Amino acid sequence: MRAIVLSVVLTAICLPVWAADAPSDKVNAEEIIRKFAAKEAQFADARNSYTYRQTLKFQVLDFGGNPTREEWDLVEDIIFTPDGKRFEKVINAPVSTLESILVTPEDEKDLRNVQPFVLTTAEVPNYQLDYLGREKVDEIGCYTFSVKPLPKKMVVGKRYFEGEIWVDDRDLQIVKSYGKATGLKSGDQRFPKFETYREQVDGKYWFPTYTHADDTLHFKDGQDVRIKMTVRYQDYKRYEGKSSIKYGDEVSTPGQPPAPKK
Questions:
Q1: 26: helix, coil or strand?
Q2: Cα dist from 141 to 125, 167, 201, whole Å
Q3: Is the distance from CB of 208 to CB of 237 less than 8 angstroms?
Q4: Phi, psi of 257 (to 5 degrees)
Q5: CA proximity to 194, closest of 174, 180, 175
Q6: Whole-number pLDDT of residue 164
Q7: Which stretch of DSSP H or E encloses residue 165?
Q8: pLDDT per residue over 226-236, tens digit each?
Q9: Is the pLDDT higher at 212 or at 63?
Q10: Which is deepest, 17, 208, 238, 259, by most CB within 10 Å?
Q11: Other residues' Cβ atoms within 10 Å of the Cβ of residue 110
């Protein structure tokens, strides 16, 4: 997000770096990272074989928390062409009524790649991971890590996640993330903190199903803008080639951390 005059633009494995005072509760944090990053890599490949619907609602709020007339809505289906190429088909995109903020390319990248955060084996060397201890997410036992991109590994144009992740201590997959998107940016851009929940698909992988943000963005020129954003990822179905989509692979409910009511 970037401030402008009288308005705002919305804008295998290398071991990670460890904090000296990381909690010691008799777990091998390096081994946990190695295993869950490998699972995340498998999940990333699997998700690329699924179709789903992504629904975004973005609002500017007044400072009493009430929606203004400024909003941006977008419904897209992530599907495949008959020859197997993946693309985003816009289903509904009313004219945006945003006036004090505009969407930047960084915002669009975050929507597609950072808010549904995946930390694979290939990406681990780009981050500092600090083990924070054990915690439960809706009765699911988790290992908690702080995640921060390493400045020397950051490249221009790429977006990164900074925050905390909760890793299921049985399936060794991320079930929740909380933080914000970041990168080597230019200008006065600001990005909201968000929370993403995952649920199981086919009883095997944990897929993003819900992202929520309610944050106030503070710009260098003194402008503050409060925003609310909800993204839902629904109707996951596995694509099996030759224009075939296998129905019945929708998000299952057993063992999932239910998304909070917003």
A1: coil
A2: 26, 8, 19
A3: no
A4: -80, 110
A5: 180
A6: 98
A7: strand 160-168
A8: 999 999 999 99
A9: 212
A10: 208
A11: 25
Q: How far apart are CA 107 and CA 113, in angstroms?
A: 10
Surface-to-core class of residue 119, CB atoms within 10 Å of its CB (0-12 exposed, 13-18 middle, 19+ buried) = buried
pLDDT at 254 over 60: no
What's 75-127 look like in SS3? EEEEEECCCCCEEEEEEECCCCCCCCCCECHHHHHHHHHHCCCCCCCCCHHHE
When pLDDT is averaged across residues 66-84 and rounded to a whole number, the result is: 92
Distances (CA, A) of 61 to 1, 175, 186, 190, 218: 16, 29, 26, 16, 14
What is residue 76's predicted lDDT score, i.e. its pLDDT?
Answer: 96
According to DSSP, residue 191 is labeled -
pTM value is 0.81
Q: Note whether 249 and 85 are within 8 A (CB).
A: no
- Give the separation between CA 241 and CA 70, rounded to whole angstroms: 41
- Answer for the pair 95, 105: CB distance below 8 angstroms, yes or no: no
Radius of gyration of the chain (CA): 19
Element (H, E) at 234: strand 224-241
147 and 162 Cβ atoms separated by less than 8 Å? yes
Region for 117 from its dihedrals, namely left if φ exceeds 0, alpha if ψ lies in -120 to 50, beta otherwise: beta
